[in-house]
Every structure is written in structure tokens, then in C-alpha cells.
Amino acid sequence: AQSVTQLDSQVPVFEEAPVELRCNYSSSVSVYLFWYVQYPNQGLQLLLKYLSGSTLVESINGFEAEFNKSQTSFHLRKPSVHISDTAEYFCAVILSGGYNKLIFGAGTRLAVHP
Amino acid sequence: DAGVTQSPTHLIKTRGQQVTLRCSPKSGHDTVSWYQQALGQGPQFIFQYYEEEERQRGNFPDRFSGHQFPNYSSELNVNALLLGDSALYLCASSLTGERSPLHFGNGTRLTVT
Questions:
Q1: Can you tell me the distance from the alpha carbon of B43 to that of A4, in angstroms, rounded to the nearest whole number?
Q2: Which of A41, A44, A94 sits opposite B90 (nearest CB)?
Q3: Do B103 and A46 touch (CB under 8 A)?
Q4: How far apart are the C-alpha atoms of B38 and B35, rounded to whole Å?
Q5: pLDDT, tens only, A41-80
Q6: Which of A78, A103, B53, B74 is the least buried, fewest Cβ under 10 Å from its Cβ?
Q7: Residue A102 and residue B104: Cβ atoms within 8 Å?
Q8: Minimal CA–CA distance to B88: which of A45, A6, A41?
Q9: pLDDT tens-place string over residues B31-67
Q10: How far apart, in Å, do the first and last CA atoms of chain B sit?
């Protein structure tokens, strides 16, 4: 069965420190990979996606993620976080050939402290 | 350009009742998907509608049903509500195609008492 595992339920970090949110997936078919962010009382916003091509993808607000096929991982990183990055982050996959049905991980709560 | 809009934002129902949630997709989008997000969990896929038909369904009972209208808007209906149906219900719209990104609304918070 296909699944997405986010290894940390909560990640506390100080402002301006680097952060990595870990995501692993299992699938017998090719996948497309996504990170979504959810701020309190809001829906999900697409942060970045990997569909094909370069395995390193970047967002407009400084986040990046690297697709590692051999390790079936898609970890999210930011070299210096801000208070405003405090949110819930969800890793998700779409299975190739399965329309665009997202399979989500359980989420990682990023808490940035001053 | 309005994004995905959902109504109502909050709803309180009693066990056994029925509820209807509504969703208007982002302009230009023809596919609507519904997700259930229980507290502290990731969203779970309920079903997807395209061309007014249910194209794919997740592991949810028949109490969960939906509809898509000619203008691409959609409804989610839940019958015989259970306490466990309390969750944030998210609607997402997209173009058809597996590589098309999903745009989410802010959700409807359903509380069943």
C-alpha cells in the first residue's frame, strides 16, 4: 500500500536557525511529490512540487526540497526560518496513473520561537 | 480572481442528522475533490468529481455522497452523522490531469454533538 510518513510530529526551532522537515514515502509506482503549508484556521497552500526534471525544487519564500528516489524521501529545508513560518506542513504524493488524488502524511508542526 | 470558496465556514449538527457542504471551484477549474481532516491528522481523500460524475473514491462509507453541477461547483452530503464525522472538510479544485496542482479552500469545520 502507498503511504507517506512524516517522521516528526513537531519541530521547535529558534528564529534564523535552519530547519529540516522529513518526509518518506512508499509506492510501487512513480509518484509526484508535494509540500503544502496550513496556517491556523486556513486551508492548505501549495509550497512546492516535484513533477519531473531537477530533483531540487524551490519555493518563492526560501524553502527547498530534494527528491531522493533511492531513499524515497522528499525532505523540506530552509536555511533560516522566520516567526511567520510557524505552521503545519504536510508532505503529499500523487501516484502516477491515479488522477490527482493526494495522499497526505500526518503533518509536522513547525514552531519558530524568538 | 476568487479562489476556492466553501460554505458554511462552521457548522454544528447532532448525531443522526444530515449535512450539506458547498464548494465553488477556482475560476477555470473543472475538477473538484473533497478531503476530511480530523484534528491533528493529515487530510484524507473522500472523492473526486469531474464532468458531474464521481471519478474516484476513497475509503469512506456510502453515508458520504456528493454532486457536481454543470457550473463545476460541488456539494458534499453526509447522512446519519456520527461523532467521528467531526472534522475540517476541505474542498480542492484543479484542472483534470494527474500533474495539475490542487487549490484548496479554507474548509468547513463540522462539529457533531
A1: 12
A2: A44
A3: yes
A4: 10
A5: 888 999 999 988 888 888 888 999 999 999 999 999 999 9
A6: B53
A7: no
A8: A41
A9: 999 999 999 899 999 999 999 999 999 999 999 999 9
A10: 37
